[in-house]
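User: Show me a protein chain along with its predicted structure.
Assistant: Here is one chain, sequence first, then structure tokens.
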Amino acid sequence: NGTKLALATSPYPTVPALLADARHKAVASVAHEKAGDLSGIRAKEAFDDLSLAVRQDQADRMARVVRTAGRILTRLVDARQALAMVSDPAIRADITTQIDDLVFENFISATPDPWYDDMPRWIQGVSVRIESLMTNPTRDPRQMAELEPLLVEYDALCEEQPAGKLPAEIEEIGFMLEELRVQYFAQRLGTRVTVSPKRIRSAMNKVS
């Protein structure tokens, strides 16, 4: 029931639209695990074999994807409620941009594995950040001063790309920035990968 209530708060036009996108992600995820690069599937027999393998596993994967979406959306409601307490316009604008960039229509299929499973922690990090801001208001601006130049550089890198979906290596840098946000503003939640401004700049220089 909690998941059902959370799904109703999503940016998708309807819950069935969200579920269709979750099925899209589940099928694509299982297919990639079974066959790797799908461009190699050209013969009917290979396609039929992959279809059978995907049908056997996609229901369980679909359930897992939807449960994760429920956790993301539940924590998003909490984060938006906490955001109402933030009076600093710069911090409010940064958090608003962050969550809007993470959760949007079709965010489920648009967020690749394994990062999709990290999204509940990233959204929870927003609430933790706001809690810390209430108790130590001077720390957040110092951390933001370090983060802001990286965000500007990443935005410029994204603008240089052709229209359409970003290349995977550039998307990866965006998710590294989310991990850095957790490290800066919600350290007690931990990060899945080691991140630092130096590592992120090195990644950006590599793809520039």
